[in-house]
Amino acid sequence: MVSDFRRKKLMYMFKVLDKDGNGTIEKKDFEMSCCFGACRAHAAKQRELKKGDATYDECFDIVWDALQKVGDSNSDGQVSAEEWVTMWDTVSKNAADQDWLDKYCKFVFKMQDLNGDGFIDSDDFVAANIKSGASKEDAFAAFQKLSQGKSKISLTEFQELWYDFFISEDPNAPGNFIIGRPSFE
């Protein structure tokens, strides 16, 4: 069972991904969502990648296909809000689904590491999250809480923070700020 706090986090992320606001996440929403503001087109431009490059397309397709497999329980090509919450509850309990969570995490990390140095610093994080509608001030404040005062976040650290956001019931977990905002309203 998902707590009210965790449901609030998950539904916040659902709304970020449901770009057309129709109550489901479809591939077109996922493509437009920029995944936490890490707009793949922006990241591709910054890193001189083009559509068709493995990093640009493969990561996205792997994550979308896995989301469909794990989250679309009725196989209708879209993930409803209830399927989304159920998926995260299942992923937190099922080691077999951890592979998808790891792929999704690595995809978002690559897209937020705009300069491609293997770390997310405040400039990367702020720029990526502004793309999804966060203010510069909120994104910067969220990075300070997320990074716990460090100047950059490694993939290993990001993975721990990622799990905090999606799996943790702890309202004080630093990973709760991975969305670039101070709250889930």
UniProtKB/TrEMBL annotation:
Q: Which GO terms describe its molecular function?
A: calcium ion binding
Protein's recorded name = Calexcitin-2
Transmembrane residues, as ranges? none
Any one Pfam family here would be EF-hand_7
Which UniProt key words apply to this protein? Calcium
- Which positions fall inside the EF-hand domain? 5-40, 100-135
The record's InterPro entries line, in alphabetical order, gives: EF-hand-dom_pair, EF_Hand_1_Ca_BS, EF_hand_dom
KW Calcium (keyword) present = yes
Per the record's keyword annotation, is Calcium included, yes or no? yes
- PROSITE patterns given for it? EF_HAND_1, EF_HAND_2
